[in-house]
Fold these 2 entries.
Entry 1:
Amino acid sequence: MSASIKISNVTKHYGALTVLDDISLAIQPGEFVVFLGPSGCGKSTLLRMIAGLEDVSAGTISVGDARVDTLPPGQRGVAMVFQSYALYPHMTVAQNMSFGLENIKMPKEEIKRRVKAAAETLEIGHLLERKPQKLSGGQRQRVAIGRAIVKEPKAFLFDEPLSNLDAALRGRTRLELAQLHARLGSTMIFVTHDQVEAMTLADRIVIMHDRRIEQIGTPMEVYQKPATRFVASFIGSPAMNFLPVTAVQNNPGGLAVTTVGIGTLQTAIHPQAGFSPRGATLGIRAEDIVVLPQGQTGTPLKAEVIERLGDRSLVYGVLEDGTKLTVEVDGRSALVIGDSLHISFDPATLHLFDESGQAHRTGGD
Amino acid sequence: MAANNKTYKPDALTTNPTLLWIAGVLSVVMMAPVAWLVGLSIKNNQELMLGTDSVFRLPYTAVNYLNILQTSRVFGWFFNSLVVASGQTLGVLVLSSLAGYAFARLEFPFRRTLFVIVLFGLAVPEQAVIIARHQMFNWFGLHNTYLGLMLPGLSSAFGVFLMTQFFRAIPKEIDEAALLDNASQFRIFWKIMLPLTLPAQATLGIFTFLHGWNDYWWPLISATKKDMFTLTVGIASSQTNFAQSEGLGFLASQAVFASLPVLVVYLIFQRHIVTAVSGGAVK
């Protein structure tokens, strides 16, 4: 069973402090949505408001057809997996999983059946009589998910559930979560500040910053067409290069932009009405910068630091006027620190942001 | 490696001869009065009147303990102490747990102010309120009743403080998980939170029982009839005069008898007491 979730004009205040400001969002049944943003952006608060652990100051939240923001947490039809798992330490795994079902007076046979089925799904059948302190981090995580599964909720809420796991286990659990979502087909909301988790798990990412939603889109949409400078800087590793714009000229093919460091570049961008070059920046991803073959001349860049990542290397370089730029090169490149390389730019991959940080896109986007 | 070394490092007390000697001397100083009391309890009065050093000489006798069985009212006082100390322990555990949970987890008006007022209770000496309390209990006719002996001990500011701090130390996500599991507030308290505070309950229970058992001041005021005496008051009343020229061994045997339950409580809950005294229980 999965349900849609609709958040309409939701605001959250703590006294005079506003932590969420007029948030609206519609999540489709069965969708895997990730709330992504830096610490303090309000993503966990929003999740907790859906769960009923925080009151809504203004606005409404609906799960399926029912408005739930006035209901207690246990009656909203959602299940949550906490960052710390929040297992009951004095209960066995089986008791942890069945506690919620006992509270709604479900027949014992049905409880037993559900616990057994969830334990089989998560491969924790052999752990049912153990207490949480006798489990590893990964096993506790599975139990926490199992506790959610047995309730057969309309939606699953995950609050940074992978952050307490080591890197290897995090990667494996990420994959298992994706498989679980495919198998259950349930609506899932996942909160994280890790963009890799967001990009790999999400059907859609909701990027939050400074109390607001910055952008909602598929992983590739937010990566390739960031709506704001914040999104462009937050998504992608290394972060996008930003160059201050000093002048623009409107050409038929798009805007010609003059920047500090590179000079004038022809872009495919047709800015919206009222665009002003004052305070604008040009954004270029490291992998979109074209490294020219030896003998060809472009903008010279001197390598200061080289990070070798195996399949690719990141060159942290400096232009002739001292402007810093990060460029991605092939992992097999023999480039060493101090070498110069010549680079050029593909007009279609350039991003333009105005003073307020709003993106101006290529024609039609 | 450092952590491992630390784990296997022998306790300094067991390897350092100086510390070992100091600990030994302190143990003798602490145990000597107890051993002497036991010695007194197994001597007859004539010998004790010759000098207390007779404790170290034969003969010894069980006559004082036989006298307890035959003539003393100590069993009645023992029963009174048991009822009062057990009642206070149960009451303090129930009230402190409920109050601690409320202060730690529930939202209600003047919560902080009320908690501060409770904490003030730690600073008010019993002697300061004893006249008013005596008058009040007199009005209600509570003197010379079990309820009258127990009631003052139930308002344990220390208990409320200890339980509040312990409940606060439990991660809030545990209650939130239970809320999402559709548990009522009472069910969260009863099935989730209370079992997690068992170490604190054990600590508080032991301290309350020992305090109730050893309390002398309030029973001395409230219990004026001999059959309502607690052990402490009863044994003190057996002392015939300051010099105690008679029944010294009998008095000592009653004191030993009175100490036995405390010893039993200590032996059963030794681990919890050590943890409580070392401060580990409230971590």
Entry 2:
Amino acid sequence: MRTNDVMLQTATKVVTFIILMFAVHIFFAGHYTPGGGFVGGLLTASAIVLLMLSFDIETVNKILPFNYVTMTAIGLLLAIATAAASIIFDVPFFTHAYDYFDLPLFGETSLHSAMLFDAGVYLVVVGVTMTIIQTIGEDE
Amino acid sequence: MSFVFLIFLPLLAALFIPLLFKKVGKIHTGWFVLAVPVILFIYYASLLPTTIDGGNLVSEFQWIPSLDIAFVAYIDGLSLLFTLLITGIGALVVLYSIFYLDKHREQLHNFYVYLLMFMTAMLGIVQSDHLITLYLFWELTSISSFLLIGYWYTRDRSRFGALKSMMITVFGGLMMLGGFVLLSIMGNTYSIRELIALAPEMATHDYFIWALVLVLLGAFTKSAQFPFYIWLPDAMEAPTPVSAYLHSATMVKAGLYLVARLTPVFAISGTWMWLVAGVGLFTMFWGSFFALKQKDLKGILAFSTVSQLGLIMSLLGASAAGYHIDNIAETSFMYAGFAAIFHLINHAVFKGSLFMIAGIVDHETGTRDIRKLGGLMSLMPISFTVAMIGAFSMAGLPPFGGFLSKEMFLTAMLSLTEFDLFSMDVWGILFPVVAWLGSVFTFIYSFYFVFHTFAGKHKPEQLPKPAHEAPIGMLISPVFLAILVIVIFFIPNRVGDWLVKPAVMAIQPFLYNSPSEVDVHVSAWHGFNTELFMTLGIFAVGGLMFWTLHKWQKSYDRFPDAISLNALYDNLMFLSDDGANRFSMLYMTGFIRSYLVYMFSFVIFILLGTLYLTEAFAIDFTNLAPVGFYEIVILIALVGSTMTILVSKSRLTAIIALGAVGYSVALFFVIFRAPDLALTQLVIETISVALFLLAFYHLPQISRKEERMRFRFGNAVIAVGVGITMTLIALSSHSQKAMPSISEFYKETVYTEAGGGNIVNVILVDYRGFDTLFEIAVLGIASIGIITMIKLRLSKKEGQHENK
């Protein structure tokens, strides 16, 4: 099923980047303002889905040659590793740590180990959503 | 040094095995593995001087302090003896396996990983002072034994044997766990040493007898006692090094270890003594009797192992008599404990060598069927010598180690006739009689094993491979063990002082203050007494019956297979399999609508029932905000689009209407100021509509008129019921608060404790991080499920094409 929709494709080329940027913003801002890994992941997935709708799956796979199953696995590993890392510091499983740092460009920034966990969630959500859509979409 | 960590050394080494196997393929992986038991053996041997004086060592590692669970390695005479057996025989078996298993054809990385895992588990069992960790290691041996029996997993018999051994030993293990829990409730401790100290008080407890029986079930299943022994013959499908190691020298002795270790706790009870001694002795007779039915070399050895384990078990039972006798050192009751440990050592040595010889015969001739073998004496002279030494020791002939312990076994059994408690004075006479009968059959099958393999007529035409002697490397281990058999005969008292007496101390700690007080002196000749005449009788009758074996061996085949214990096991397995299948088929219809009916009826039942029982229903309309204009508009849109889904004629309309429902809900979230939820809902709705559109392409055409669904009263009741239930719950939960809301806590701590600003996200990643962790795990599993469903279906289609 080839689509040939100039308007949709032209808009997609711009909108995809806006959605992706927004997804990144929402992911990082999640700890203080609405957002987080879950929504960020979903938004990213929706940007890719939009690409798939306006072009076709093969093209998108060529642009973004990710193995989404691996992505899910990496996300899960990251999440469990973050949770387990606290054992090394002799505090209970899943104890988060955070502090404030003075970073160049950003100024005073809080760095939180929850961010790593959230990154794991992000990867799993993108991975799973895209796996499902890809598998069903490619199934003829 | 905290030697508790040494238990885990094999497991640690196992991590590197696959790497070594892949990268250093030229050298047989076994050479690397060999280092592990050798190092451990040397280290543990250096602890011997401590235990010889009756001392002990403790090393601890806290695992879950909040549950009082720790790894406690406790080394005394008994555990050190087992430790040395495990590492010593382990080293010999690994050496043997290097020549037995081909490095090109076999999956050595699997084999050695399982073997090392087993080594850790076994060391853990014999050193643990903590009941729960002991149980953990106990089950780990069952699992590694399962994996090793099923090592050649392409064979049906291997898989069957692996499963059988696991079903039976894990059943016993679970029973034993129950016993351990009862013990810990009675003594309020998990430590075996503390339980032993508390033993006199526990004997009157209500749980005592239950704990006793449950623990014994664990020991009997593991040590292959009647009627649970049936897994051991089937476990012979494992590679022979495994049979030599797990199924004769170490794992099956775990049950004996447990009985020996817990004797001080339970020995006060007559039930214990009767069960352990009785079951053990009966097993000894039963195993030796049926060993002669076997045609497979390893089958004979399996039944012989069952029988010998029974012998040791009965001696351990008899040693409990010591708890009821004053001045044990002046009576013949003191022999039982000593004989048990002494025979345990002897058995490990001679049975290890016999198994290795069976493996050599199999390896060099291609068959283990004793009917095809014969006359190998001149072709395999070294193997024959080793087999003869091992078998004669097993038969109880001098000058081999087995003779000494067999004599002591008879002494101990005779002493039971003098015991006057627990109605032993009436039935005690049975013990020496059955023991004698069992010994006769032991004598016969030992000869049967050696002479039907190595003597008689050579039948080269029946052998798959031309027979020849094994390579020298394969012979090192069995020859070493055979030499040990003879050495033990000549220095029994050295063995006794170093290994046996410290272990006897652990079995009968109340009776002796130091190992040197165990006043047993082993000698090959102790005059003309009853034991000697019994032994001579065994030789005479056994020799005569072996001579005429060909005449009466056929009568074994008259035992019907249908009423055997194996048939019972098969039927039980079949019944549980079949029964479970039938039961599942009752409700697993394969239609989603049936499953939804179960789920929703249950939801209604549980929730309405709880509401009714707890009288939780309440309606309170005070405190409500006025309903605004936007809310009414969204509500109308929501209800309208829901109805549209139900009545729409085309699927596309339905999908779009479904999207509208989702977006309306998202708008509600906006109005009620839940931006996180609104955002998530919006994106999810977008993606699921896209997904629906994707799937839409694959869905079959619908034509509403043809598939007009009938009105079903039951479904209507459930639908209405779910609606009513949810409404009632929503109203009630809004109208009352059983406990104060948790949101205040979140508000106060979100910045100070969790260092965040957005409560919703902090809940996700921090407060309730576990939930999220499991949820993403579930997501991952779901995606794998979808992949397999779709990909498997594709390959099935292709497969069907191929068949056409």
